[in-house]
Structures are given as C-alpha cells and as structure tokens.
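Reopening this ticket.

The earlier resolution said the output was attached, but the attachment link was broken on my side. Pasting everything inline this time so it's all in one place.
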Amino acid sequence: MLLGFAHVGGYEQLYHRYMMAIPNTTVADSNDTCGQPRDDAWQMLRDATTSDMPWPAFLLGQTPASIWYWCTDQVRRTTSPVPHLYRLPVRRSNV
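Inline output:
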C-alpha cells in the first residue's frame, strides 16, 4: 500500500487522479454521468436520504445478513462430519 501511495504521489494525488478518472467512451453515450465518479465518492457514510446507498438502509440491511451468515457458518463448522483444514488433526497411536 505504501508503494502504491508513493507511485501515485500520496493521498492527495490519489484523490485527484480518482476524481479525474473518466473513460473516453461509454456503452451508453447518451448518459453524460455514466462512468464519472460521484462528488461524494470518498464519503464512507453518504447522505441518509438522497444518496444511491443510504447508510441507514445499508446498516440495517447488511447487519442481519452478516450475522445470519456468521451463525450458519459456525453451525456448519461444528456439526460437519468431515475434518477441515482449520481443525486440529486427531492423532491416534497404535501403542
């Protein structure tokens, strides 16, 4: 990551170059905004009412899905009859 920042000239140059990264042609030439970075592209939590992905909907929608995935993954790991790579191997001796 540090080499990448050094290559582009630091964080400020990364921001500037990202906002200027506009394709020469797009699939739909009639749309002027296609492929252009949004003005709020660097904001992690965008406006709660007018953005393309409001943060309340993201948090309230993603959190239950993430918890559901984590819980089902834990059940699968503990009840699976097949030993997995992340489990310790069972060592049996013939003595």
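Reporter confirms the inline version is readable. Residues 28 and 43 are 27 Å apart (CA to CA). The radius of gyration is 24 Å.
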